[in-house]
Amino acid sequence: VFVLCCCVSVVCLPLQERGALGFERHYHVTDPFIRRLGLEAELQGHSGCVNCLEWNEKGDLLASGSDDQHTIVWDPLHHKKLLSMHTGHTANIFSVKFLPHSGDRILITGAADSKVHVHDLTVKETVHMFGDHTNRVKRIATAPMWPNTFWSAAEDGLIRQYDLRESSKRSEVLIDLTEYCGQLVEAKCLTVNPQDNNYLAVGASGPFVRLYDIRMIHNHRKSMKQSPSAGVHTFCDRQKPLPDGAAQYYVAGHLPVKLPDYNNRLRVLVATYVTFSPDGTELLVNMGGEQVYLFDLTYKQRPYTFLLPKKCHTSGEVQNGKTSTNGVSNGIHLHSNGFRLAEGRAHASPQVELPPYLERIKQQANEAFACQLWTQAIQLYSKAVQKAPNNAMLYGNRAAAYMKRKWDGDHYDALRDCLKAISLNPCHLKAHFRLARCLFELKYVAEALECLDDFKGKFPEQAHSSACDALDRDINAALFSKSDNAEDKKGGGPIRLRATGRKDSISEDEMVLRERSYDYKFRYCGHCNTTTDIKEANFFGSNAQYIVSGSDDGSFFIWEKETTNLVRVLQGDESIVNCLQPHPSYCFLATSGIDPVVRLWNPRPESETLNGRVVLDMEGASQANQRRMNADPLEVMLLNMGYRITGLTSAGAAGSDDEDSSEGQVQCRPS
């Protein structure tokens, strides 16, 4: 209380007035507040699932949309319903947005009836109805720089742009994903960069997230119309729907190669929500069927496992997904057919000593590893990595913990850590060996064999260790088993980038864009996103210090952004939490889901009794969600109906083969 009073008095001083808002937004979400976050109120008024929430710019109004086809505008600070109106939709509302610079008078809704409606709240009337989409409208996006313009994403694969100044009151197609991905593609979500409104991010079916330059698209189409030869094309003169450079793709590097396996298990990958960080430099994606990913838009990196057709591999081109002009990338010499370690025998490199407090954290992580507490070990190593980002040993140890835990995506994170460790210490023996094992687990069998052979050459004293022999046997068994990999590579291109049928045929332009995709920076694990396709993930705090996401288990999860560590889990719904919208300037969070209510969360007083909605066993909740994501869809449906499935054991959490118990210390034990 003393600290808060001091803060208020400082802000109220005349000399500090100019910086008051900045101070407030900088400190409104802090770690003590997060750890005291609890339920403040439930707003009741809807009669169906609440599928969307939206704050106005000031944060004194909250709009909600529901399956009951009504929208309600709330005074959340006083827990009051200000306005309720039927939107004119005939099906579930999936998106609601205040139109910028309209004085909070204009509200836009999109719904499952394929319609987009514009409402004037002052007269409680629907003033415009747009019926241009042919399938469910999932998201609406607005931009402060364009006050009369907004966009919609729908399951017909189209991104439409609307201008309320146009007399025709019709929309135009800004992006047609079906021209790139076939008729089956569905657009699920979109958002505009808050700092540069020319950039629009789109999430759709599949693991790829797209970032478009709206200005480039409009200029391209304007020039096409003004061109003297417009409308006159030869057979070979194909007009591109988008100009070169107008689109960038982002994907978690391990997902494309996992896609066939996911499809076989009826596990759907789809981006259910995308949003930019407040400063516009990061893109957050809730990937349905998988995890939450953060992409750095400034310091981009190519996926480590993107192996392009061998004929494309030349000096100075993309090799293993990394641009290289001298054959060196990520501390490893890359050849056109895979990974190759630097030539010559390895010599021990001096280790940089950690400060005492970080050494203690590392020892705690090692102890957790020894007790097979893999997640705890990962979180402790991550905490140390944040403070010592140039310590190879920490990356190598965390890679070992990822490989033991075996959750979805863990082997790819382990591969990334191995490459980072090798780049910091080219003689890191364990990281070299773990790299080969990761490649094998990620189904890059030939590359794993070459990496293992290079390891044996560089560390001959380890060539006949039990770990090397075990991995050698695994690789050779895979090479001489079913020729799946050979079948996958027929056609001269990576199987993960191709389509399987005529209706979802992928264009050559789409292939090129996918091959140029950028990888993620951070991954957030623990929640489950397999049941609904509107599940959100958001930045929490004006500096984006935290990440929040809903989950199929009725909880919502809060992670530290930089360490990716899970810090808080709260029960937000009796079934599923879909929506999480942080207040623009307070430590205040609105959530909704299957329950017909809106819940408000803020830091509770220290004098308040224990919060009954806190999930204390965060590790147990995370493990259960991993099992849920890898379960049979029928089992998940029964789980949602309240039945207990005894066949869901922890062994199924990883979705990968049992580890070989004969592996030696070169891989398993942390340093």
UniProtKB/TrEMBL annotation:
Pfam families, per the entry: WD40
Gene3D superfamilies noted in UniProt: Tetratricopeptide repeat domain, YVTN repeat-like/Quinoprotein amine dehydrogenase
GO terms under cellular component: Cul4-RING E3 ubiquitin ligase complex; cytoplasm
Record flagged with keyword Nucleotide-binding: no
Keyword Signal attached: yes
Signal peptide: 1-22
WD repeat ranges, renumbered to this chain: 43-75, 86-129, 540-569, 570-611
GO biological process, one term: negative regulation of fatty acid biosynthetic process
Keyword list, A-Z: Repeat, Signal, WD repeat
Disordered: region residues: 651-671
Lineage top rank: taxon: Eukaryota
Protein name according to UniProt: WDTC1 protein
Organism: Tychaedon coryphoeus
